[in-house]
Write a structure and sequence with these properties.
The complex is a heterodimer.
Chain A (H helix, E strand, L loop, with lengths): L1 H22 L9 H29 L6 E6 L2 E4 L5 H21 L7 H19 L5 H20 L5 H4 L10 H10 L18 H12 L10 H8 L18 H10 L1 E2 L4 E2 L8 H13 L5
Antiparallel strand pairs in A: 1-2, 3-4
Helix pairs in contact in A: 1-2, 5-11, 7-8, 10-11
Chain B lengths: L1 H5 L2 H27 L11 H12 L14 H7 L34 H9 L1 H4 L18 H15 L14 H17 L4 H8 L5 H11 L2
Helix pairs in contact in B: 3-7, 3-10, 5-10, 8-9, 8-10
Classes of the chains: A mainly alpha, B mainly alpha.
Chain lengths: 296, 221
């Protein structure tokens, strides 16, 4: 018997050590679920082994004693063997609890799955705001890249180059064709204070000159016809602090307006991402897009 | 007391069953009755969308894609607002799915476009590198079954009182009207597509499966 007890203890220790060896790193961090699971495992192993030992002991040493009950079936009798009082009390307690749960506990409980979700969101947003209160530029680029890979990459491609023209190439601002298309068709619904851009504000050689100038990165002398554009987009093409879209690069206004309103252009339609990407993430996306601009 | 029960096993079993069943009953029924009502603003699918839904079932999309967004932050961040029971009130059968080899599609209409689906169905790896999804090229040449879709809608209307033909709801009408409406809707979808063979087929009054499927996916919002 002593041997068995010692064997049992050794088995418990070995099992626990093996589990810790395999999955011990799960305890690092602030998630208490793993520790709770481990505690449960410890309880199961100890109780199983203790119970097994008890009954092995009983089989070895017990003899039948006690008072026989009145019933017998073909000569096979039954000892009077009252239920353990602890078990009986729990049983009666459960019945009492059942009435409480039927009539008070369940009907008036306050748990709601959606309430739990709302709490989770509030908690998560607070944590997000706290952790990313003053992110460095490098952190923002990293956040931007993560958001980009989940939300944007399916259309713009993992390299952001637009998958062979299926979406905007985000490593460049505007191509000549895009500028010509917008001059010809105008633009609307992008949510800028300057309002909609009417079609055909420039034609022929003027439009060509403007498109070449913008697609070339707005280097050197602006063509005379660019004055038409400068009225809203500014002489430097940067959109006059958010009055109109920035033609020279991706700034935060441009990125957030496109995310909010979506876009229908010469390439196709981009859906709106309103409410799906928060302010910090938008800022991060802008930083990320600016970090991958193609050089000269 | 226990002797009395021990001697009546059938009676005991019946009473036990009733007790357990009653507990389940009073927990499940009130919530179920409330949650299975259609949510405000819910509209049944049009005939073209139903034809697309049948393509979705036929090509077994639901063995890899779910249509049920659970109320967890990680899911709503990626897929949008969590799903409500009432949103499925007109779905027969529902297509919740039980396994996500691919992403959830319950609100895919909010963040993917006709062009994207077209590229993706033709060659999934061209837009999602490393994707496991096979290509569904046959959808560009097979024609959708509008007649069955109409029968499906009409059955739902007659038998389950799904509110077609009511104010502000999709119009079903006769088969001729429904067919014309579905073809007109297909033209709108095809206008955003690039595949010339599909555009030609739609112009001729045919409806390739891909057009119906995209109409269905775009309606998932």
């Amino acid at each position: 018997m002593k041997k068995m007890v010692i064997g049992g203890i050794i088995l418990v220790v070995v099992l626990m050590a093996a589990t810790f060896f395999i999955a011990g790193d799960a305890f690092q961090g602030d998630d208490y679920i793993n520790a709770l699971t481990m505690l449960g495992a410890l309880a199961i192993i100890s109780i199983t082994i203790a119970t097994a030992l008890k009954y092995v002991n009983q089989i070895k040493n017990d003899t039948a004693t006690g008072e026989l009950a009145d019933e017998n079936w073909d000569g096979i009798g039954e000892y009077k063997n009252p239920i353990p009082s602890g078990w009986g009390l729990i049983f009666i307690g459960t019945i009492v609890w059942m009435f409480w749960y039927f009539f008070i506990g369940y009907p008036t409980n306050q748990f709601s799955q959606i309430g739990q979700y709302n709490e989770e969101v509030v908690e998560n947003n607070a944590k997000f705001a706290k952790v990313w209160k003053n992110p460095s530029d490098e952190t923002l680029v990293n956040i931007g890249e993560s958001v980009f890979l989940v939300q944007c990459a399916p259309c713009h491609g993992v390299d952001a180059e637009g998958i062979d023209g299926k979406a905007q190439d985000l490593t460049h601002r505007l191509s000549k064709e895009q500028v010509l298309y917008t001059i010809k068709n105008g633009a609307q619904g992008h949510g800028y204070n300057a309002g909609a851009m009417p079609p055909m504000m420039a034609t022929g050689a003027d439009a060509e000159a403007i498109a070449t100038y913008i697609a070339g990165g707005m280097k050197g002398e602006a063509p005379a016809s660019f004055a038409t554009c400068a009225g809203c987009h500014g002489a430097d093409g940067k959109g006059m602090n958010g009055m109109a879209p920035n033609l020279a690069g991706y700034d935060n206004t441009l990125v957030s307006k496109v995310l909010e309103h979506g876009k229908k252009s010469s390439i196709g339609t981009m859906p709106s991402f309103k409410g799906r990407i928060n302010e910090t993430q938008t800022k991060a996306l802008t930083k990320f897009i600016n970090s991958i601009q193609a050089g000269e | 007391m226990f002797h009395w029960l021990e001697q009546r096993p059938f009676f005991f079993a019946v009473v036990l069953f009733l007790t357990v069943a009653f507990a389940g009953f009073i927990e499940a029924i009130p919530d179920f009755a409330k949650a299975s009502q259609p949510i405000a603003g819910l509209k049944p699918h049009t005939v073209l969308q139903l034809a697309g839904r049948q393509v979705y079932i036929k090509d077994n999309c639901l063995s890899c894609h779910s249509q049920l967004i659970r109320p967890f932050k990680s899911e709503t961040d990626r897929y949008g607002m969590y799903s409500l029971s009432g949103e499925y009130a007109y779905d027969r059968p529902f297509l919740w799915g039980s396994k996500r080899t691919g992403p959830d599609l319950h609100r895919v209409g909010n963040y993917r476009t006709t062009e994207w689906h077209e590229n993706h169905m033709m060659n999934p790896q061209s837009v999602v590198p490393g994707s496991l999804m096979p290509s569904y090229k046959h959808q560009f040449t097979n024609m959708a079954d509008l007649a069955t879709a109409y029968a499906n809608a009409n059955t739902q209307k007659q038998l389950f009182h799904v509110p077609y033909d009511q104010k502000g709801m999709p119009k079903l009408g006769s088969w001729k009207e429904a067919e014309a409406a579905a073809k007109a809707e297909a033209k709108l979808v095809a206008a955003d597509m690039k595949n010339q063979a599909v555009k030609d087929a739609v112009a001729k009054g045919q409806v390739p499966e891909i057009v119906a499927l995209i109409a269905y996916l775009n309606s998932l919002k």
